[in-house]
Design goal:
heterodimer, A: 298 residues, alpha/beta, TIM Barrel, 8-stranded parallel barrel, two-stranded antiparallel ribbon, 9 helices, 38% helix, 17% strand, B: 259 residues, mainly alpha, Outer Surface Protein A, domain 3, 3-stranded antiparallel β-sheet, two-stranded antiparallel sheet, 11 helices
């Protein structure tokens, strides 16, 4: 299977998703929204899974906390993975849980060597329980924290080296973070090792409406707008370099009709097909036709 | 308590900066002179929005009755004092009905906590384990065997009794186009269950509530019917029983001890 484009699945689109006939279409969900004992939501996902590949993209594991991943959460993830057999599973380089409180956000931290040790251990533990490797996504950042000992790209690459995990490159997050913290998105993307990248995310962002200060307003990773043109340009640059990868259109707020999202998904799909032709992916050792999350860990 | 390293020390400081609405706790991790970074508010707003959206999903009748602005403000205040304890927000807001009952701005909306309670019952039924309702044929037993049998109730079943017509108000408010809503004075019960794909809800009378309360307390069918008759001597017991079977509230029937 060559890499194709997918769409974040929203409950209001279940019927459209079941009826969709686009070639190579796959869906991604947040497993936290399906951690239920039963009910129609799980049944609908089951029906969709019967016809389409599925990706589980976690938002609540809190890998970048100074604590072991919550075992109950891990086992719930494992149960969903066993039931839905996703072709890839992913999480974020961020924390949300701390001392019993779960903030529904992806929070930052100073990228120290101590943090690297802890997060590598947390990823290892996660992969051991799940019995498979995961992809780790770069976060969108809003604070100019000091005390970093590693660049984010070095930090991510070191995690892949230590744990065997892959990378989920969210191009919109790169764009947002680069704008907010003042670095070049191109440079960031150019140094990520192609062989580590297992999936790409594309989403829309907004401008901070509360920002009435001097200087430039923050960009916010809202997932509430179409993918911006500069993000498309970065995406093309990335896949031109590393080859096609499973690519997801994410939309979680101000959700339009299914067809509107499918138009963005089809645009990504077209770019992937074009890249596939251009690079001759079948012969290229750089391309990874199999998503890395499928690899079972020994 | 977890032994805390430097990452944990930062998390403690960041959590305090979020809760106390000041960057002071994380000053040591900010560039010199940066005392009020806009980014902190972005995290704070995203967290609040995540909580408010989850509560709006779980308490849709409350949200529709008070409007998005009132609901958003109340839900954000609730979330500040009652942050989620799980990454899965499907059950978030268990304490919201009781919190609303103590929320001064809701004093002139005395029906609101009950609306929230029934919304919560609905949300719980929506994600409850699956159960396969018994068909009417399963109850075609000799009268003595039927009376001695103990029914097993659907895992999604929820029911409650109220001192006034709050269930009727709640059902009316959930209509896609709510008409005029009145609060009846007579006490009413509500039955919520997800027999197959969808959650259903209906009013429950005194006898029906007494029957389910007994059955949930491990009574035999005979004992439950007796409880229903005692609650309302005028009740049509065969019709009551047939309606509950049709609702799909029974998933099993354990034979009783031979008399």
């Amino acid at each position: 299977m060559s890499p194709t484009a997918g769409l974040g699945l929203k409950p209001q689109h279940y019927d459209d998703a079941l009826a969709a006939d686009a070639e190579g279409l796959w869906f991604e969900v947040h497993p936290e929204n399906y951690m239920a004992a039963g009910g129609p939501r799980l049944r609908r996902l089951e029906a969709i899974r019967e016809t389409r590949p599925l990706s589980l993209h976690g938002v609540g594991l809190s890998l970048a906390a100074d604590a072991d991943p919550d075992l109950g959460h891990l086992l719930a993830l494992k149960a969903l993975a066993d039931r839905f057999e996703p072709f890839v599973m992913s999480e974020h380089l961020a924390w949300s849980a701390w001392r019993g409180v779960h903030q529904p956000d992806l929070l930052p931290f100073p990228r120290t060597r101590a943090a690297l040790d802890r997060i590598a251990a947390n990823i290892g533990r996660t992969q051991d329980v799940l019995g498979r490797t995961i992809l780790v996504e770069n976060p969108s950042l809003y604070l100019p924290l000091t005390g970093h000992e590693l660049d984010e790209t070095d930090f991510l690459v070191e995690l892949t080296r230590r744990t065997g995990c892959g990378l989920l490159v969210d191009v919109n997050n790169v764009f947002v973070s680069a704008s907010n913290l003042g670095y070049a998105a191109e440079t960031y993307l150019d140094v990520l090792p192609a062989e580590a990248i297992g999936e790409i995310h594309l989403a829309g962002h907004g401008v901070d409406a509360n920002e009435a200060r001097s200087g430039s307003a923050l960009l916010i990773d809202t997932h509430g707008a179409p993918v911006a043109e500069p993000v498309w340009a970065l995406y093309r640059r990335l896949i031109d370099r590393v080859g096609p990868r499973p690519t997801l259109i994410e939309r979680d707020d101000d959700i339009p009709a299914f067809d509107v999202l499918m138009a963005e998904r089809d645009r990504a799909h077209g770019l992937l097909q074009r890249t596939l032709m251009g690079t001759g992916a079948c012969a290229s050792p750089q391309s990874r036709p199999e998503p890395v999350g499928d690899d079972a860990r020994g | 308590m977890t032994p805390v390293g430097e990452l944990g020390t930062f998390q403690d400081a960041f959590a305090a900066a979020l809760a106390e609405r000041t960057a002071a706790p994380i000053t040591g991790w900010l560039p010199e002179g940066e005392t009020d970074p806009a980014g902190l508010a972005v995290y704070r707003n995203t967290i609040a929005k995540g909580c408010v959206d989850a509560l709006a999903a779980n308490f849709p009748t409350v949200a529709s009755l008070v409007g998005d602005d009132w609901f958003g403000a109340a839900a954000a205040l609730f979330a500040r004092d009652n942050p989620p304890k799980s990454a899965a927000l499907l059950a978030y807001g268990v304490g919201f009905p009781d919190w609303l009952a103590r929320f001064p701005p809701a004093d002139d909306l005395p029906y609101l906590p009950a609306m929230a309670r029934m919304d919560g019952m609905w949300a719980t039924a929506l994600f409850a384990p699956e159960g396969r309702p018994l068909a009417a044929e399963a109850f075609a037993l000799e009268p003595q065997a039927l009376a001695a049998a103990r029914p097993r109730l659907h895992p999604s079943l929820a029911f409650a009794w109220f001192d006034s017509g709050l269930p009727g108000l709640w059902l009316a408010a959930r209509e896609p186009q709510p008409g005029e809503m009145e609060l009846a004075e007579d006490p009413q019960g509500v039955l919520i269950v997800r027999p197959h794909e969808n959650v259903t809800a209906r009013l429950l009378d005194r006898a029906g509530h007494a029957f389910l309360a007994a059955a949930a307390d491990d009574a035999t069918l005979g004992e439950a019917i007796t409880a229903a008759a005692e609650a309302d001597p005028a009740a049509d017991l065969p019709a009551l029983f047939a309606a509950l079977i049709a609702d799909g509230v029974f998933v099993g029937l354990d034979p009783g001890d031979p008399a």
